Amino acid sequence: QVQLVESGGGLVQAGGSLRLSCAASGSIFSINSMGWYRQAPGKQRELVARISSADSTDYGDSVKGRFTISRDNAKNTAYLQMNSLKPEDTAVYYCNFLIRSAGYVGSYWGQGTQVTVSS
After folding, report:
1. What is the per-residue pLDDT for 32?
2. What are the φ and ψ backbone dihedral angles of 102, each rounded to 5 degrees?
């Protein structure tokens, strides 16, 4: 069984910074991609950032230049450094990993962490 645990959300003023973490545990052979998504009230879940096993990255247009995704393979952990936060960044943030375990590749989600940016 695989579990993802997120941390680092909270309340911050506009222009501030937060760092999210997502750690995977359980039966893991390798982690292909790691990603962050977010969902604001009344809106669809959208891609924030993702990073491949080769460290190539992809960002949503609204966060380019402000957010940075990184990974620590030894810790099975992904990070999302969020700078210059805006009120429109307010959402629940979810991590999503593609994990290979015992010949099976599965998509796993974290429980979500609330990020609130005040104006």
Report:
1. 95
2. 50, 45
Distances (CA, A) of 57 to 19, 32, 47, 60, 103: 17, 13, 12, 10, 25
Pairing status of strand 113-118 against strand 10-13: parallel
Two tokens, residue 54 = 């080769």
Confidence of residue 102 (pLDDT cuts 50, 70, 90): confident
15-36 pLDDT per residue, tens: 999 999 999 999 999 999 999 9
For residues 65 and 72, give the distance between their C-alpha atoms in angstroms, rounded to a whole number. Answer: 21
Contact between 69 and 34 under an 8 Å Cβ cutoff? The reply is yes
Three-state SS string over the chain comes to CEEEEEECCEEEECCCCEEEEEEEEECCCEEEEEEEEEECCCCCCEEEEEECCCCCEEECHHHCCCEEEEEEHHHCEEEEEECCCCHHHCEEEEEEEEEEECCEEEEEECCCEEEEEEC
Q: What is the mean pLDDT of residues 58-80?
A: 98
